[in-house]
Amino acid sequence: MVAGARRRAVRDGDRQVDTAHLLHSLLEQDPEVRAVVGGPPQLARLLGYLVQRSIGYGLRWQGSVEDSGAIAVVPRPATGDAGDWSPAAADALRQARERARRRGGSAADAPDLFAALVADPDSRAVEVLERAGIDARELSERISALIADRSAEPGAQPGSAWSEAGSGAFGAAAGSGGGGAAGAGEFAQDAAF
Q1: Closest CA to 18 of 58, 72, 57
Q2: How many whole angstroms separate alpha carbon 101 and alpha carbon 127?
Q3: Cα gap 186→94, rounded to integer Å
């Protein structure tokens, strides 16, 4: 899913992978996430907003960095490869990993990431959800219930959505609980997310 979000950012001409890219990738690839969002009308409306990102309201995002205050922002010039994570997206990935650790998993899965995305009221993902008429707080409760139900199932296995490789800035930050921004190539299993 992470690789899908990166490809979308490159295709849209965005300098960073942000929470809306991650949301779009989650919706396209994970049936549990789609089920939590709602029925076909809600999904169609939400995906419609996400698809319009590069031609509609999302144009105002292209020249800015998504920052919800979680990490100090030091803007870098665009490289054309969307190799960087927005501070809010990097924080969502860190929070997803922390959620997985709290429930005993070794890696985050799609519901963990989705829960982390909707937990940040200032993220672009939440802005898109609200534009589509989906209440992020209510969604957060449904995601928490899904994760709790999955954890309570006999023989439930922790998910393995993504994992860090090496000791890159994001890997070090996630392991230590400190700040930092993720860069390109720091996730070993992008395609597995």
Answers
A1: 58
A2: 27
A3: 13
